Every structure is written in structure tokens, then in C-alpha cells.
Amino acid sequence: MKKILTIILMLMMFFITGCAKKEKHAPNTILYIYNWTYYLPDQIVRDFEKKFNVKVVYDVYSSNEEMFAKLKAGGKGYDIIFPSGDFVKIMIKENMLEPIDKSKVPNFNYLDKDVLAKIKFDPNNKYSVPYMIGTAGIAVNKQYVKNYEHSSNIFNRADLKNKMTLLDDMREVLGLALKSKGYSVNTNDKKQLAEASEVVQGWKKNILKFDAESFAKGFAAGEFWVVQGYAENIFLELDEKQRENVDFFIPKEGGPMYIDSMVILKDATNKELALKFINYIHEPQVFAQIVDFLKLPAVNVEARKFIQNQPHYQIEDLKNCEFKEDLGASIELYNSVWEQLRI
Fold first, then answer.
1. Which residue in 205, 162, 196 sits closest to 177, CA to CA?
2. Does residue 304 sit in helix, strand or coil?
3. Nearest to 102 by CA among 75, 77, 125, 70
4. Which of 28, 106, 249, 258 is 20 to 30 A from 14 in CA distance terms?
5. Separation between Cα atoms, residue 311 and residue 137, nearest integer Å
6. What is the DSSP letter of 151?
7. Cβ 8 vs Cβ 14: under 8 Å
8. CA–CA separation, 87 vs 1, rounded Å?
9. pTM for the complete prediction?
10. Interatomic CA distance for residues 54 and 48, integer angstroms
11. How do residues 205-232 score in pLDDT, each as one tens digit?
């Protein structure tokens, strides 16, 4: 009898243990996030899971277009997405986003008011909460390049011919040229775009190529001395000694800039948990960890008190920059101008 009882107890323990191992989180305790690659430290996600006793399922994309195409093709189940401003506007038009209940995101109050004032794609941030702000700048190898201004006119220098690159990106290059003429990066004025095209034609005589893929590696290798590009890409390729010889700057005339925001999809199943996550991201000490990881300017004012690593540039450096907006029907005009420049 004792033997039978022992066997029964062992079977019960096995059953209980097995169930414990197979236990799954309830649907309302799982948060599904779709974000850019390498855009959020893993530790932040793990800390959120631990603090709220939930699970995060995390997928990544490499472009706004990829993200948007997947969602429009029927990709469902995600709660939070991190689109850039122009795509926030598109997603609002497509009725894809849930309004943000700011009463449940009290840390929104820490966001830089000057940054918020520049946002036109989502007035009063009804549908989005800013995450990261940034821009392409210009990196110069000071070993080879002397006596230059912090200006896009560096691309006019014939003495640097074939040692410079511009991004293979229509909005970035035309936006830089438009700003050099004092125009908006979102203009739909044909005359202004024609003038910007002339500026780029002048730059084109001196650059080696339009390059959005290898500019950082080429710069690190000494193949290029001046490149238009993103600081986070460029410095990733440089060792400490090389960094001493690099001057990365935002042109004084300004240029196009981006802001990636957190949004909640209208068909999200875990909207309350999504709001908790957005608020958690903007807890000052949490956001400071993210900024230290990315080395981008902090849109969270309170978080600036806790930052350990110096960002590649500051919010003040972006004062003459302008957010890229959805161009609507004007995109065809831009495409036409860009096609001629790329010939």
C-alpha cells in the first residue's frame, strides 16, 4: 500500500512540475513589440518583464517601408510600433493607430517642450509619444581635411574630389540642399526643388558616389575623408584612436531630421500594458540607459541628469533642422528630381 501511495505521490509531483514548466502567460500579460533593429537594449526589455511580471515578444524591422508593408499585408498581433514621423502621419491617415491616453503616461511630462513644438505630423501628440530624435550629419577626417566650416558647402571643395560621399537617400540629400538655400525640407515648390537640384549637381562633381551602405566602413578605412551619414553608424566602425581624428557636425544651415515615436496599433490586444511600457521607457533613469546605449540626444529632459555617456550631438545642435514630413502627392516631384540626379 505504501508503495502504491508513493507511486501516486510521485506521479502527482511529476504532473504538477510538468504543468509548472508548461505554464504560459495569459494573453493580457504578453506585450508584442515591433521595433527597429538594435534600437532598444535587451536589458531594458528584461527589466520591464521583471517589474511588471509579464512577457515581451520582440520583433524587428530595418525600414519604415518594411514595417508598413508587413502591417498592410495583414501582419497582426503587435501592440507597439516605433515608426518615424512621416509614417506616423501615414498611419494616422490609414486609421491604424489608437489615441494615447496621456493620463496613463505621466512621464510624457518629462519630454522636451521645444521638441514637441516642432512636431507637425501628429499635433499635440494625440497618437504618438516621441522615442528618439536624430539626423544625418557630416563626418570629417581631420588628418586630411583642414580649414573648413561646419557647413554643407564642404561638398563644393574640388580639392577633396573623390574623397567624399553623400547618402544614397533622396530625402536626406535633397533636404540638405534645400536647407542650404534656406528652404523647407518638405517644400513642394518646383522652383525651390530646381535650385536644390543645382546645388546637388555641384556637389556631385566632387563626391565619389552616393552611398547609404558602406560610407561608415569606407570612412573608417580612410577611403573617404568626408561623408554624410549617421553618427551611430560612423562611430560604430571606429576605434578609440580613430575617433580622436573625427569631427562630426550638424551643418549650421540645418538639414532634415527624424523622430521615431512609440505608437499603439488600433487592433492591439494589450493596450493597457502598452501604455505601461511607453510610460516605463520614459522613466528618467530608464531612458538615460537607452540614451547611453544609442548616444543620441535625450528628448526626455529629466533623463539628462542621469546620462553617463556623452551623446554624439546635443538637442541644441538640431535647432536649424526640420522634421521630415509625409510629402503626399509631392513625392512624385521629388522622385523625378532625384532620378535625374542619380543618372
1. 196
2. helix
3. 125
4. 28
5. 14
6. S
7. no
8. 71
9. 0.79
10. 8
11. 999 999 988 999 999 999 999 999 999 8
C-alpha cell at position 239: 576605434
d(CA 92, CA 96): 6
User: Among all chains, which residue has been given the C-alpha cell 511607453?
Assistant: 278
Tell me if 202 sits within 8 A of 156, measured CB to CB: yes
Gap between the terminal Cα atoms of the chain: 90
Residue 267, helix vs strand vs coil: coil
Cβ–Cβ < 8 Å for 52, 272: no
CB contact at 8 A, 265 and 96: yes
Contact 306, 285 (CB under 8 A): yes
Closest Cα to residue 99, out of 261, 266, 259, 262?
Answer: 266
Residues 284 and 294: their CA atoms lie apart, in Å, by: 15
- Structural contact between residues 315 and 328, judged by C-beta atoms closer than 8 angstroms: no
| Residues composing the chain | 343
- The C-alpha cell 513644438 sits at 117
One-letter amino acid of 3:
K
CA distances for 87 relative to 15, 108, 326, angstroms: 50, 21, 7
Q: Which residue has the cell 510521485?
A: 10
Closest CA to 149 of 268, 21, 77, 252: 252
pLDDT digits (tens, 9 = 90+) for 38-51: 899 999 999 999 99
Report the pLDDT value the prediction gives residue 24, as an integer from 0 to 100: 59
Q: Which band of pLDDT confidence, cut at 50, 70 and 90, is reported for residue 33? A: very high
Residue ranges of E strands in 184-289: 209-210, 226-229, 246-249, 256-265
What the block records as the C-alpha cell of 33 is 513589440
Beta bridge partner(s), residue 139: 227, 248
Which class for 333: exposed (0-12), middle (13-18), buried (19 or more C-beta within 10 A)? middle
Q: Is the dihedral of CA 38, 39, 44, 45 positive or negative?
A: negative
Residue with cell 569631427: 247
